[in-house]
Automatic annotation (TrEMBL):
<dbReference type="InterPro" id="IPR008915">
    <property type="entry name" value="Peptidase_M50"/>
</dbReference>
<keyword id="KW-0129">CBS domain</keyword>
<protein>
    <recommendedName>
        <fullName>Zinc metalloprotease</fullName>
    </recommendedName>
</protein>
<feature type="binding site">
    <location>
        <position position="82"/>
    </location>
    <ligand>
        <name>Zn(2+)</name>
    </ligand>
</feature>
<feature type="active site">
    <location>
        <position position="83"/>
    </location>
</feature>
<dbReference type="Pfam" id="PF02163">
    <property type="entry name" value="Peptidase_M50"/>
</dbReference>
<dbReference type="GO" id="GO:0046872">
    <property type="term" value="F:metal ion binding"/>
</dbReference>
<keyword id="KW-0812">Transmembrane</keyword>
<feature type="transmembrane region" description="Helical">
    <location>
        <begin position="152"/>
        <end position="172"/>
    </location>
</feature>
<dbReference type="GO" id="GO:0008237">
    <property type="term" value="F:metallopeptidase activity"/>
</dbReference>
<feature type="transmembrane region" description="Helical">
    <location>
        <begin position="227"/>
        <end position="252"/>
    </location>
</feature>
<feature type="binding site">
    <location>
        <position position="86"/>
    </location>
    <ligand>
        <name>Zn(2+)</name>
    </ligand>
</feature>
<dbReference type="InterPro" id="IPR016483">
    <property type="entry name" value="UCP006404_Pept_M50_CBS"/>
</dbReference>
<keyword id="KW-0677">Repeat</keyword>
<keyword id="KW-1133">Transmembrane helix</keyword>
<feature type="transmembrane region" description="Helical">
    <location>
        <begin position="65"/>
        <end position="84"/>
    </location>
</feature>
<feature type="transmembrane region" description="Helical">
    <location>
        <begin position="123"/>
        <end position="146"/>
    </location>
</feature>
């Protein structure tokens, strides 16, 4: 997807990140293509190999390596089934699927477009934990049905437990977890405000992270959790907190972008007759004014660009005529005064620091200084382009 001004790739909408451990994932599709499953392209991130090595080390002795490998593969299959839940739901509900990536202790499914309605958002995000729960139940039932305590039974029990953990963990109500997306959808449905939903769910993610980290610290002190287990949990909590924080930040940026409007940023043009000195213009219009040159009929024919006005030293203002600084009206690019949001960014893309003539129909209503947009703190480097 080509990037343009106001566009970006880390929109938490449009993607479910699913984890045993949830962490911030970027959408660079780095990894080994594993082919297609049910029509979805599946990639294996190289970070997954880190997990394989870590688990092997943890299992430590030759006899246990095999179980380590089974554990890792079981986890991989569990995450894949979880992602398939998201992917199938997304395809059925019309938001499309770019692909599934499996990586270190988790994975994510990238959608082709944002959910148009809260209901779709909720359904796609809950389909993952739903799939995990289903796998856990089926594997658990299988284990219970088998008569002995053999290898297959142990495998099924392992699969049931890991899927149950994945289902419950990801259903926790805070972004970037699936449950956080569902909470986002719920707030969106109730308030009609998509960004507020994202902000609240992001804050919930941060709170969740603090609770998880606090619980781990308490269990560690009470000797119910090993140092490795606690460290692992802190990493999980940290990644949830970061993801929640990102969601809050992006929601705020989106909200500001939505409020962006040309007519609100338009500076009026203070017209002075041809031949007026710069000093006189400043006396009449004030220091911050945008000066225009008008003909005897009052028609505006030239405007002083911001940069030009600043080039005249104060002691030379009496001798320089405003005409010398002005640029013909026809030489300015123009923007429509009714533009809002993303369209404003698109309109000033060619020159993000220049001056633009603001027009309403045939009329010139003022000047838009593209540099003023920066003051609105809108996200100049993001925005889903789908
Ligand atoms: Zn998920």
């Amino acid at each position: 997807m080509p990037k343009r001004l106001g566009e970006g790739s880390d929109n938490p909408d449009g993607r479910t990140i699913t984890r045993v451990v949830e962490h911030e994932a970027d959408s660079r599709r780095a990894g080994i293509p594993l082919g297609r499953l049910l029509g979805f392209p599946v990639h294996l991130s190289l970070s997954w190999l880190v997990l394989a090595v870590l688990v092997t080390i943890l299992y430590g002795e030759p006899g246990a390596y095999a179980w380590g490998a089974v554990f890792v593969l079981g986890l991989l299959v569990s995450v894949l089934l979880h992602e398939l839940g998201h992917a199938v739901a997304s395809r059925r509900l019309g938001t499309g699927v770019k692909g599934i990536t499996l990586e270190f202790l988790g994975g994510y499914t990238e959608m082709e477009r944002d959910a148009p309605r809260p209901r779709v958002e909720a359904a796609v995000s809950l389909a993952g934990p739903g799939a995990s729960l289903l796998v856990a139940l089926v594997a658990g039932a299988g284990a219970a049905a088998l008569p002995d305590d053999g290898t297959v039974t142990r495998l099924l029990v392992h699969l049931a437990v890991s899927n149950a953990i994945i289902a419950v963990f990801n259903a926790l109500p805070g972004l970037p977890l699936d449950g956080g997306r569902a909470l986002h959808a719920l707030v969106w449905a109730v308030t009609g405000d998509r960004h507020r939903g994202q902000r609240i769910a992001g804050v919930a993610g941060i709170v969740l992270a603090v609770v998880v980290a606090g619980a781990a610290a308490w269990l560690l002190v009470a000797d119910h959790l090993s140092l490795v287990g606690a460290g692992f949990t802190f990493v999980v909590a940290g990644s949830i907190g970061l993801g929640g924080g990102t969601a809050v930040r992006l929601a705020a940026q989106d909200a500001r972008l939505r409020r962006l409007a040309v007519d609100r940023l338009t500076r009026p043009i203070f017209g002075v007759p041809s031949g007026t000195s710069v000093a006189e213009a400043h006396r009449r219009g004030g220091e911050g004014a945008v000066f225009g040159v008008v003909d005897p009929d009052g028609r505006l024919w030239a405007v002083v660009p911001e940069a030009e006005d600043a080039t005249v030293p104060v002691d030379r203002r009496e001798s320089v005529e405003i005409d010398a600084l002005a640029r013909l009206v026809g030489d300015y690019p123009s923007v429509d005064s009714h533009l809002t949001g993303d369209d404003v960014l698109k309109a000033v893309e060619a020159d993000p620091v220049g001056d633009y003539l603001v027009t309403a129909g045939e009329d010139v209503v003022g000047i838009l200084r593209a540099s003023d947009i920066e003051g609105e703190r809108v996200p100049l480097t993001r925005r889903s382009g789908t």
